[in-house]
Each structure stands twice: as structure tokens, then as C-alpha cells.
């Protein structure tokens, strides 16, 4: 009887079997960068049905095909995309903002994602243009936010006498994502 009760309350999401390669990220509070990194991966056919495990356990992470934002390793050959090492200073070509896990995934898979989503040939100059434009206009803000980099230098704002008229922290993508950590 208890088995039937469990089955009847099982949600459709729990019944869905994810069959792609296992993606790992950290447990606890989630952030915009690893949420975007996982989303970007799942845009690719290889990862479209990939399950996600959230853990910091190295033995569990070792079973993952691809790991983002945890594990202390950046190695694209082994599909490890963490940016939390003290010596990590990787940036997107022609930019100076240190990458987050979203930027790392985008740097390595962005052209493939663009080609797959648009139907363009991956070698097309249009893919190159979109790759740069999407990084500059979207992904870089995730990288900067996750790494604590402001769009404006505080010293420049102070020198110009610019102060905020109100607190706008509630209107960034990262702050909206963070609110889900506190949802009931």
C-alpha cells in the first residue's frame, strides 16, 4: 500500500529518466554562473537529457562526465570547469574579466551551441561574430558578477561624485537567481 501511495505522488519530473552524460555542480546555494553553465550544456544534443548531481563529494564528482563550478580543477580535456583555484586567471579572448563556470563553458562550447541553435556552419564568420557579441553583451556580466567585479571602478565613481540613489541589487539576473535559494 505504501508503495502505491509513493507512486501516486511521484511527480512527472521524477518519472522522467534523464539519459545523457552526468553533469555535476556544487550543492548548497546555487548561483547564476553554474545555473547558466548547466543550461548552456543542455542546449547541446549531447547534454539535452543529462541529469545533474549537486554535491561537493570528490568521489561522486569523479563519476560525472562534466563538472562545473566545483572540484577545484579547470581542465577542458577532462571536462572540468571550475574557476575557484587561487592561481586561476583565465579570461575570454580579447577581454580582461576573469571567467566564471558560465564563461568557461561558453568559451569551450559557445560556437558549437550557436551553430546548433542557429543552423549556421560552425566555421562561419557569422558564428564568430555571434560568439564574441554574446560573450560581450551577456556572458561577461555573469563572469564579473560571480567574481565580484563591478562594471564601474569604485574610485572612478567616487572621483566623479556619483552615488546610487537607491539599492538596485534586486534587479540583476544573479540576484533573481539567488532569491530561489530562499524560496519556501
UniProtKB/TrEMBL annotation:
GO cellular component: cytoplasm; nucleus
GO MF assignments: hydrolase activity
Pfam families: MYG1_exonuc
Keywords: Hydrolase
InterPro entries per UniProt: MYG1_exonuclease (IPR003226)
Coiled coil: none
Family from the record: Belongs to the MYG1 family.
Protein name (database record): Metal-dependent protein hydrolase
Organism whose genome encodes this protein: Glonium stellatum
Amino acid at each position: 500500500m505504501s508503495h502505491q501511495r509513493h507512486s501516486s505522488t511521484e511527480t512527472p519530473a521524477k518519472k522522467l529518466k534523464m539519459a545523457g552524460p552526468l553533469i555535476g555542480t556544487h550543492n548548497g546555494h546555487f548561483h547564476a554562473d553554474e545555473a547558466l553553465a548547466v543550461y548552456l550544456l543542455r542546449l547541446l544534443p549531447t547534454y539535452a537529457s543529462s541529469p545533474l548531481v549537486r554535491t561537493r563529494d570528490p568521489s561522486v564528482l569523479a563519476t560525472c562526465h562534466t563538472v562545473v563550478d566545483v572540484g577545484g580543477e579547470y581542465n577542458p580535456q577532462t571536462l572540468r570547469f571550475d574557476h575557484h583555484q587561487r592561481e586561476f586567471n583565465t579570461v575570454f579572448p580579447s577581454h580582461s574579466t576573469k571567467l566564471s563556470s558560465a564563461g568557461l563553458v561558453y568559451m569551450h562550447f559557445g560556437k558549437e551551441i550557436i551553430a546548433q541553435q542557429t543552423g549556421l556552419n560552425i566555421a562561419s564568420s557569422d558564428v564568430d561574430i555571434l560568439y564574441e557579441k554574446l560573450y560581450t553583451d551577456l556572458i561577461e556580466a555573469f563572469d564579473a558578477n560571480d567574481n565580484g567585479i563591478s562594471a564601474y571602478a569604485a574610485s572612478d565613481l567616487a572621483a566623479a561624485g556619483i552615488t546610487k540613489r537607491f539599492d538596485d541589487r534586486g534587479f540583476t539576473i544573479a540576484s533573481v537567481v539567488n532569491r530561489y535559494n530562499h524560496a519556501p
